[in-house]
């Protein structure tokens, strides 16, 4: 019963989205024939994906299917893993991110990331949010104060922390820490936010808050979210990509993939036959 | 309970073990544990005795420390019954061997110790920290596996070797550049003590920095930080309590260092802050007297306890200071 209600809700949301989409959205990320190897292990195979502006794109699939690898490739965090090789191209706003001239810091200043486990710095709440603007040269105390307040409000955590901005971030609960990490990411006003299973370490109520937040944030940001929770993908995303064994099996509108998947394997996965 | 089992029975059973190859009886594991348990009863007395033994050894080391401090205090009191405590801490003249009237003002020895320790810290802290940052944040696993053991070997060299290194190599080398440098001086042992404590700072700070979780580096990199920014603004602050602890430990070691200054520092107590002339540190004075320059029961004999006590207070204050600082700046994660 609940599931059908959920589906209806998704349809209504999608129906509204359809009209917006008529305005012809811009492509943020264009992935073209991307292959990636960990040493000998071929982890991503011929990936082609287009990610649009101001949408939530969900990436689902069973463990080890390459969904985390893919999202980490988008801001080149994957290069921290020794022995990674890539071929193909990912164009961010029309420019290949693997280009030698493309500084990785420049890319990551445009593309923020929220991780699986909350990872605030062992500093005060204020310093956590101000860290990004500070390293990029913003030192004016008044401006920083504004950025911190705006970012914390944007991450829907301001009311909970405004009276203890100068206390250690590790005094916050797990869910609050994760929203603080989102605020830290918002502070440099990125273009895209990558979220790698952002709710997998959180309780259901914190998860709900983050999901609501994602809905708010997509008005201003393009969001790509990896999740192992199919209901979550159905609830919050506009498009969904299904990954399996390093390949994209299906990539289409979320309501379509969950109602009438075109590939048998997608259907098996979303109906819970494996994974 | 014995579990009856027939060898070669078709049904496979998890419970039961054949003791002998051709036995027809199997024993359950629980059964065997019961049998062994009866023998084990003796071990329960051992279980009771062991904590008592361990407590005893712990008490031995505590008592030894207390004994040392007590001896130090008692003998220091004897000294202060002969020499005024005010003179000891305020007079700037240290002439214990004066044939007429000995003068006991500890400040020249304190100045000697501070000069040497200061030079050592100036040498060791930057090099040690830079090494730690390199090893923890930049070096490949292979490089780290080569460099860390070398550092630990450096820490194991006997200090007398460092002393002769200072006297016969560093001093002549420095005299090439500073002709006015005396044979015995503060500069050369200071530099060599700095070299000696550098591995300590490097190794302990590296441990502190390596234990900062990788997720924090990733968080900072994902915001567009460079590697240097990650090292200096995230990893170093997160590890600061460990880093400060390593520096204080190393500086305490420099204050208490004896052989290097005794060999290369000279034996001229001096209030001057000049680094090129001969000095005497608190530790070097204790060596000089212990070597037999003064008889038992003389004021000079008791003076080494007073100097030793002063030294003890110095390192104690350093340690308390370190605890305060590291608690104040601790970044918990």
TrEMBL record, chain A:
Residues 22-270 form the ABC transporter domain. InterPro entries: AAA+_ATPase, ABC_transporter-like_ATP-bd, ABC_transporter-like_CS, P-loop_NTPase, PstB-like. Pfam families: ABC_tran. Gene3D superfamilies: P-loop containing nucleotide triphosphate hydrolases. GO terms for molecular function: ATP binding. Keywords: ATP-binding, Nucleotide-binding, Transport. This is Phosphate ABC transporter ATP-binding protein. The lineage of its organism: Bacteria, Bacillati, Bacillota, Bacilli, Bacillales.
